[in-house]
Amino acid sequence: MDKEKLEQIKQKALEDKIPIIMDDTLQEIEKNLKKCPPKSILEIGTAVGYSAICFTSFLEKNGKIDTIERDVERAKTAKQNIKEMNLEDKINIYVGDAIEILPTINKKYDMIFIDAAKGKYPFFLKEALRMLSTNGAIFADNILYKGYVMSDYNKHKQRTAVRNLREYIHEVTENPNLETEILEVGDGLAITKFCV
Ligand code: SAH
Ligand code: MG
User: Fold this and answer.
1) Ligand 1 — pocket residues by CB below 6 A?
2) CA 21 to centroid of ligand 2, rounded, Å
3) pTM of the predicted model, to two decimals?
């Protein structure tokens, strides 16, 4: 992995105000995967490919990543970044809305990273649970959304997002088949696995 190039991609994304994964969130995911490196990763929300590029170093030797992005410009930049990092054989981008693309995928994934429209998290969860392998884990980023989710915040344009993030948390914590940890790293990270 060309660390210098990766740092350039990160700095450019930050300059362009693209909400890339935070360092502590990335570290937490890495820690979680140490014992059992994933063979396959699904990411919802590629942006410019920064997190997907970082995740390639968590993969098992012949592992692969599928990632979905609906913004055509961002997907284009992601492809360019992935090419520059020589990771074209590891990362496949689906360009389009995950709402339409997810139902067409029928694969099992060892790790699923949810990092797209907050108002769609309950739908993404349903699809993720359908495709999660028995020993896999779902990581949902931004689950605490600047603290709004755990406060009595109930206003303005973020209301739908907050309601849907709360619904996500409710589903992963109340389902008896699932085990969930919610961590206050970054903007909040929910880690969900099937009970063993
Ligand atoms: N995972 C990236 C950051 C993703 S930002 C990283 O850490 O580097 C969230 C991205 O999700 C945005 O680029 C946005 O365009 C995309 N997105 C939001 N809703 C989506 C949807 N329904 N389908 C596909 N992509 C979506
Ligand atoms: Mg995020």
Assistant:
1) 19-21, 45, 47, 50-51, 68-71, 74, 97-99, 115-117, 120
2) 5
3) 0.97
pLDDT, one tens digit per residue, over 82-134 is 999 999 999 999 999 999 999 999 999 999 999 999 999 999 999 999 999 99
Report the separation in Å between the CA atom of 103 and the middle of ligand 2, taken as the mean of its atom positions. 22
Q: What is the mean pLDDT of the chain?
A: 96
Q: How far is the CA of 196 from the centre of ligand 1 (A)?
A: 31
Rounded to the nearest angstrom, the gap between the alpha carbon of residue 151 and the centroid of all alpha carbons in its chain is 24
Q: Tens digits of per-residue pLDDT, 170-195?
A: 999 999 999 999 999 999 999 999 99
Query: Mind listing the domains of the chain with CATH numbers?
Result: 3-194 (3.40.50.150)
Output b/e per residue, 30-57; b: 16+ Cβ within 10 A: eebbeeeebbbbbbbbbbbbbbbbbbbe
Q: Considering only CA atoms, which residue is closest to atom 13 of ligand 1?
A: 47
| Identity of the residue numbered 74 | R
Please state, in angstroms and rounded to a whole number, the distance separating the CA atoms of residues 95 and 82. Answer: 14
Which protein residues have a CB closer than 5 Å to ligand 2 (ion)? 115, 141-142
Relative to the alpha carbon of 17, which ligand is closest? 1
CA angle 69, 100, 96 (to 5 degrees): 25
Average pLDDT estimate for 13-30:
98
